[in-house]
Amino acid sequence: MPPSPATLTADPVTTALAPGHDRPGAGATLLGAHHAGYGADLAGHLAYHGQLPLPRAGDTGWPERLAECVEASGLTGRGGAGFPSSTKLRSVGVAGGTLVVNAMEGEPASTKDKALLSCAPHLVLDGAQLTASAMSAARIVVCVADDDHHSARMISYAMAERSGTAASPVATTVARPPAAYVAGEESALVSWLDGGPGVPTFRPVKGMPLSARRRRALVHNAETLAHVALIARHGPGTFRSTGSADAPGTTLVTITGGVARPGVYEIPLGARLEHVIARARPTDAVQAVLTGGFGGSWLPAAALGTPYAPKPMAAAGGVLGAGVLVVLPRNACGITETARVAHYMAGQSAGQCGPCVFGLPALARDLSDVADGTADGTTLRRLDERLTAVSGRGACRHPDGVARMVHSALTVFAGDVATHVRGTPCAHRARPSMLPPQTACRRGPA
Amino acid sequence: MTSITVDPVACAAYGYCAELLPELVTLDEWGYPVVDGAPVAPTLVALARRAAIACPRRAFLVDESPDQAGRGRARSPAGR
Asked: For A307, which DSSP code?
């Protein structure tokens, strides 16, 4: 019995567009069909979006036309790196290789891959088929973490619905790599698909091509592929009709923490951060927001006017990352919460690189000392040195993310740090964490 | 252009590289080597090669790519 799409409307997923961003022609969004009441099955998908424009046999100009269409749309990868998608579409040498769809949802605070695979699995598959066809890839592998049974059921059902039809020219399978923070890193994913341990691999040259079964493997984020499907159908103009000129289109964000309606929201890029988090109804005055995820960066309440797009967010000291926004209300301690996240992230190290294995627990202990009021100026200086010591020293960017997050906490919560260093422990350290339950989170592979 | 890289997965903090090449390698508080990725001075290239051969984990990589952009494949002279 397939999961009933009707049950999905209970998800805390709301309509796409923030007030003031609703423009004509902005209907073709990732979750538009879901909000319009269309089912997540193939019939509902086709009724809302229409047939998938796949190439006719022998149409050699089609891959470049698709790349031009995506280039005109200005789509960038939604996995965190923000790489122009058209450049990746034009990658050569993937013929006969593997297109890997990354729906691993490694960020504990994120549920956007789950929302996408539940509400629009066929959009993800459409995007994968288009991209794989353009690159002449031999197979598509959709990666869903081994603890995310609902998403795996939804995508498997969607694949079964279209198997043997024209909408499924490239063979597609589902893989279930181990659920762990770093398992979704692209080299870890490809390593696992190639029979390896599923941990990040060291690449001496940045961006060195990955391969599985001795063929090239290219990893795409699930959300990016779903956007490709929309752009191929509705054109780059529709995509650009939302978002800002610099950062067109919509994106999925997971809003959690001190909010009444946590969940996944589709928002236009460039919307002001305060409008974005207002969708989830903060329960109290906002003190700060953790942007990007557990390897992201804290932004103070003063920065809530920042447009949610890569460039302005970077200028303000934030990141888009995995599209996570954790709201910290005014009566919580940012240092205590950051220490909790740092301890969790230390436990999520793949255990391969010394600076990560030893550095992250050391950072977390230093932060706990600060929150407990047992730290002094020496601790802060050591913390600063350790932040430098772990950055850029791993095979993947896990330690860099933690260092960035801790560094931003020391800046944004500088007032709290000064109080705690004078010997006053954090008054809120005993209260339950505002962040998603970390004890219930997945264990690392090591 | 010659540069040095450490494979952080292979490295097990033996520290031989810092012993043999203190001009370019320092150790962090946990004993793992820190290198800055800058071009290696011609007078130190031979020492860098020796440090690479001495590494029991083959984690110390000397990249002697002729390519100015430094985009060549990193390799250790021991031919890992």
From this structure: B
Question: How is residue A399 written in tokens?
Answer: 């330690």
Q: Is residue B69 part of a domain?
A: no
Question: Could you tell me what percent of chain A has a pLDDT over 70?
Answer: 91
**Tokens 């793992």 belong to residue:** B32
DSSP A55: P
**Domain membership flag for residue B77:** no
Instruction: Give A309's Cβ-side CA count (13 Å radius).
Output: 19
Is residue A47 within 8 Å of A66, Cβ to Cβ? Answer: no
Pairwise CA distance, residues B66 & A208, whole Å:
18
Contact criterion met (CB below 8 Å) for A34 and A13: yes
Express each pLDDT in B32-80 by its tens digit. Answer: 999 988 899 999 999 999 999 999 999 999 988 765 444 444 444 443 3
Is residue B79 in a domain? no
Q: Residue B71 and residue A389: Cβ atoms within 8 Å? A: no
C-alpha of A248 from chain center: 18
Chain A CA closest to residue B14:
A354
Alpha carbon distance A121, A104 (integer Å): 14
B 14-53 residues inside an 8 A Cβ radius of A = 28-32, 34
Q: What is the DSSP letter of B38?
A: P
Domains, chain A, ordered by start: 10-240 (3.40.50.11540), 334-421 (1.20.1440.230)
CB A398 within 8 A of CB A363: no
pTM given for the model: 0.87
Q: How confident is the model at residue A94 (pLDDT cuts 50, 70, 90)?
A: confident
B3 torsion bin: left (phi>0), alpha (psi -120 to 50), beta (else): beta
Domain presence at residue B73: no
Among A37, A25, A172, A5, CA closest to A101: A172
A55 contacts A133 by C-beta, under 8 angstroms: yes
Which of A121, A279, A106 shows the shortest CA–CA distance to A199?
Answer: A106
Tokens of B79: 């031919």
Task: Identify residues of A whose CB sits under 8 angstroms from chain B CBs.
Answer: 201-202, 204-205, 352-356, 358-359, 386, 389, 393-395
DSSP state of B40: P
- Other CB atoms within a 10 A radius of the CB of residue B36 amount to 9
Please give the residue range of the domain that contains residue B51.
3-32+40-63
Tokens at residue A153, please?
Answer: 């059921």
Q: What sign has the CA pseudo-torsion A107, A112, A115, A119?
A: negative
Total domains, chain B = 1
Residue A1: burial class (beta carbons within 10 Å; 0-12, 13-18, 19+): exposed
- CATH code of B11's domain: 3.30.70.20
